[in-house]
Each structure stands twice: as C-alpha cells, then as structure tokens.
C-alpha cells in the first residue's frame, strides 16, 4: 500500500515537472492590445537553430490552441539564423530597422489577415518665417537642375513633433531661431521617396533672430525675400506660391491651427491634438 502511494506521488510530481518543462518550451513574448504576441530574440534566446525550431513548433501549436491571431518576431542581427526557420514556418517580412528585422504570421487559416502594412507615409514640414519687415525666409537647395526658391524645411524625425521638426530644420538650414505660431496647410502626395506617400505640413513660425548663416552641405543660397517677389518669381513652384497665399488668407481671416499636448486614451502615450482657433497677433 505504501509503495503504491509513493508511486502515485512521484507520478504526479513527474507530471507537474513535465508540464512545467512544456510551458518553458514555448515563447512567452508580450501581448499587444490586439492580443497579438510579440517575441524578441534578444530577450528569449535559443542555444541553436535546432532548439529554436522545436520551441517555435511548440509555441505555434500552443498559440493556435489559444486562438491567438497574429505572431510577431523581432529578430536581432546576431540571431539571423532564425530568419530562414521562421520563413519555412509561414512567417513573412514586415519591416526592418538597422540591425533588426520584424517578421509576422497570421495564424487562422480560415480568416483573412488583419496585419497592417508597415508605415507607408513619410512626414515633412516647411516653415513660413516672416520678419519684422514683412520679408519671407527662403532657401535654394544644392544639387538641383533648376535653382528653385522654396521654404526651409525637411523630414520629421521619428518621435519628433511637427513644430519641433520645422523649428529644427529652419535653424539647421539658415541659423534663424523661431517659435511656433500656427499650422497653415498641408500637402498629401503619393509615390514619393521609396514609393511612400508623403505628408508635408506648412507651419507659420515667428523669428526670434534675423541674421542668416547658410548651411553649406545642403543649401545653395538663403535670403529674406519680399513676399510679392516670391509669389511672382519664375523659380518658385506653384505649390509654394499656394502655401504663401494660404498664409495670407489665414492672416486675413484671423484663423490659426494650434496644437495641444495630450495623452492618447488607449495607448497612454503622448500625442498632439490640432484644431482651429482665432488668430492672436
């Protein structure tokens, strides 16, 4: 009788250990708010390709049983040998950044994938800077076939607000320090750099300084130009003329588009909310 009880005890203990081993042989990952699972190769490494392959198989089975929809693997360059194994198991490339590649898989065979495409729109900003004489700050970029005059500006960096970006770009290109006043307009175009769509915001900035020092790497020339001259200059694109006319209209109608810092109600991350307001001169 005693030996039988010992058999029962050790059988249960072995089952518990086996269950724990089974759990440890699946990737844990992090769950997003869409209930997808994200696995990081640095945080959950494997000894070799064989152990990774086995762990992946067990994980996919477990996730399917739990009705998980989307699986994401963030693979570091030092774990590049994971990539062909993931590909053989139905994962596809989603995007890459530096030394990281992101691969994903939609698990349900009977449902159309809801995994979104990677970010497909670039964002830029240009500044309308008017000095106390009513002159407009303009630049000519280097390496152009035709030396067009344009508004200073450039790309918004990752994690950078629109206003911060255009203030930085104006300073880098012309050495003019500015402060945000209003968003005036924006352009939305397609098939731009890298085949992406492109959003370009036109922002009114108030100059704090007025002494121009040209940036030599990208800028051929910069100056304070009379607005009427800019609007009729043969080397100014129609888009830029339109932006200045929009600036003049917003000033005449006394309207502004101002930003307000806030926290996103779902992601709990910082955001900027923009809306129409009465212009304050």
From TrEMBL:
Q: What's a Gene Ontology MF term here?
A: NAD binding
A Pfam family the protein falls into:
NUDIX
UniProt KW Protein biosynthesis keyword: no
Q: Which residues form a coiled coil?
A: none
Q: Which CDD domains match?
A: NUDIX_ASFGF2_Nudt6
- Please list which residues make up the signal peptide: 1-18
Keywords for the protein's UniProt record, in alphabetical order: Hydrolase, Signal
Matching entries from PROSITE patterns are given as: NUDIX, NUDIX_BOX
The organism's superkingdom is given as Eukaryota
Sequence ranges assigned to domain Nudix hydrolase in this UniProt record: 120-248
Q: Which protein family is it in?
A: Belongs to the Nudix hydrolase family.
Q: Which PANTHER family match?
A: FI03680P, NUDIX HYDROLASE RELATED
User: What is the protein name for this chain?
Assistant: Nudix hydrolase domain-containing protein
């Amino acid at each position: 009788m005693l030996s039988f009880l010992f058999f029962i005890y050790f059988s249960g203990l072995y089952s518990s250990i086996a269950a724990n081993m089974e759990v440890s042989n699946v990737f844990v990952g992090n769950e997003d708010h869409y209930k997808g699972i994200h696995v990081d190769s640095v945080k959950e490494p494997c000894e070799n390709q064989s152990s990774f392959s086995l762990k992946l198989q067990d994980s996919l089975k477990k996730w399917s049983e739990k009705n998980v929809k989307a699986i994401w693997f963030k693979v570091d360059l030092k774990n590049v040998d994971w990539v062909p194994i993931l590909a053989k198991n139905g994962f596809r490339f989603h995007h890459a950044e530096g030394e990281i590649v992101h691969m994903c898989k939609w698990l349900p065979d009977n449902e159309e994938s809801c995994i979104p495409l990677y970010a497909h729109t670039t964002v830029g900003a240009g500044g309308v800077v008017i000095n106390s004489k009513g002159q407009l700050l303009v630049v000519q970029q280097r390496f152009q076939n035709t030396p067009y005059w344009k508004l200073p500006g450039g790309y918004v960096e990752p994690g950078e607000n629109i206003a911060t970006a255009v203030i930085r770009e104006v300073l880098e290109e012309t050495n003019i320090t500015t402060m945000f006043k209003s968003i005036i307009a924006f352009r939305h175009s397609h098939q731009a750099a890298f085949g992406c769509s492109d959003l370009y915001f036109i922002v009114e900035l108030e100059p704090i300084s007025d002494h121009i020092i040209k940036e030599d790497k990208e800028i051929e020339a910069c100056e304070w130009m009379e607005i009427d001259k800019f609007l009729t200059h043969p080397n100014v694109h129609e888009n830029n003329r339109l932006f200045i006319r929009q600036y003049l209209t917003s000033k005449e109608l006394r309207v502004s588009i101002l930003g307000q810092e806030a926290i996103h109600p779902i992601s709990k991350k910082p955001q900027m909310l923009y809306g129409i307001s009465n212009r304050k001169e």
